[in-house]
Amino acid sequence: MSRSEEESGLTLTQKQLVFVVSDSVGETCELVVRAASIQFHENAIETLRIPFVEDEQTIQDVVTQARAQGAVIAFTLVNEEHRSLLVRLGHEYGVKTVDLLGDLLDVLAGQLGESPREKPGLIYRLDEDYFRKIEAMEFAVKYDDGRDPRGLKKADIVLVGVSRTSKTPLSQYLALKRYKVANVPLVPESRPPEELFELPPDKCVGLIISPDKLISIRMERLKSLGLKPEADYAQLERINRELEYARGIYERIGCEVIDVTNKAVEETAGIILRMLDQSKED
Fold first, then answer.
1. Is the pLDDT of residue 281 over 60?
2. What is the C-alpha end-to-end distance of the chain, expressed in Å?
3. How high is the pLDDT of residue 169?
4. How far apart are CA 177 and CA 129, in angstroms?
5. 105: closest CA among 80, 140, 125?
6. Bridge-partner residues for 76, per DSSP?
7. How far apart are CA 118 and CA 88, in angstroms?
8. Which of 104, 78, 75 is nearest to 87 (CA)?
9. Which of 87, 126, 182, 231 is most exposed, with minimal Cβ within 10 Å?
C-alpha cells in the first residue's frame, strides 16, 4: 500500500458506486465516468446507469437512493431546471454530484449568445442518421446489379433498366439520402427474377434512354475497357431490342418510367424522391 493510501485509509478492495444519470440513454456520461475510473485501481468504480430521467420525482428518487447506497451522482441533463434540482437535492441530502454537461452548456451559451435547445438525445439522433446512411450504402452495394433477388423486397426503391442507364450511380446517390435501393439489369436473354413482379408498382422505377445517347455511352465504355466499339453491345439494332424489351417489362410491372437521356443523376434522383413523396400522400 502506498503512503497516500495509508494516509487516506483507503484499500485496493474499496469500491465507489457512481450513479450515471441522464435524460437520454446515458452512454456519454458513462463513458466519461469510465475514463476517470481508469486512473484508479482496478474495479475501483462501479457504475449504475439510470437513463431517461425526465421528471422531478425521478430525480428525487435517484438522490434518495444514492444517499442510501453511498453513491456519487454523475449526470448529463440538458434541462437547466432539472440540473439545478439535482444539484440542490444532492447538497441537501449530502450526496456528491458532478455535472458533466451543464458548465459547458453555460459557457457555450454565453459565447454564442443563444440558449441551448434542451432536447435530450440529439447526439444519438445524429448517430442514428449516420448509421442509417451507412446501412443504406451497404445495402446498395450488396444488392447492386441484381446480385441477390431476395433484397428486392427489403428495398425502399428498386431501379430497373438496361445496361448504362445510371442504375448504380442512382442507387448510391439515393443511399446517401438514407434510402435502401436495389437495382435490376434488364437483358433480353435473361429473365428478370420473379420477385420483381411481386413488388408494389410504386416501389419500382423503370429507366429509359434514347438509343443515340445509349450508343454514345456504351462506345465510351467499350473504349475504357480496351474493347472495339464495333461490339454488338453498342450497336443500334441491339440497343433498340433491349429498350423494347425493357418497355415490355415496365408495362408488366406497372411502374413509373423516367427518361434519363439528358438528366444528371441528381436530377433523376429528385424525380424519384418526389414520386415517393406523392405515393405516400396517396
1. yes
2. 74
3. 93
4. 10
5. 80
6. 22
7. 19
8. 75
9. 126
pLDDT tens digits for range 162-184: 999 999 999 999 998 999 999 99
Q: Which residue has the cell 440542490?
A: 88
What's the number of CA atoms in the CB half-sphere (13 Å) around residue 107? 5
Question: Which amino acid does the sequence have at 154?
Answer: K
Interhelix angle for 167-176 vs 122-142, to 10°?
170
Dist CA 130 CA 201 (whole Å): 29
For residue 17, what are the CA distances in angstroms to 37, 67, 89, 98, 159? 11, 11, 18, 13, 55
Rg (CA), the chain: 30
Task: List, for residues 97-121, the tens digit of each pLDDT value.
Answer: 998 887 776 676 677 776 656 565 5
What are the contacts of 50-54 at 24+ separation with CB within 8 A? 50/19, 50/20, 50/21, 50/22, 50/26, 51/22, 51/24, 51/25, 51/26, 52/22, 52/23, 52/24, 52/25, 52/120, 53/21, 53/22, 53/23, 53/77, 53/82, 54/23, 54/79, 54/82, 54/120
CB atoms within 10 A of CB 98: 17
Q: Render the burial of 166-196: b for 16+ CB within 10 Å, e for the rest.
A: bbbebbbbbbeebbbbbbbbbeeeeebeebb
Whole-angstrom Cα distance, residue 186 to residue 167? 11
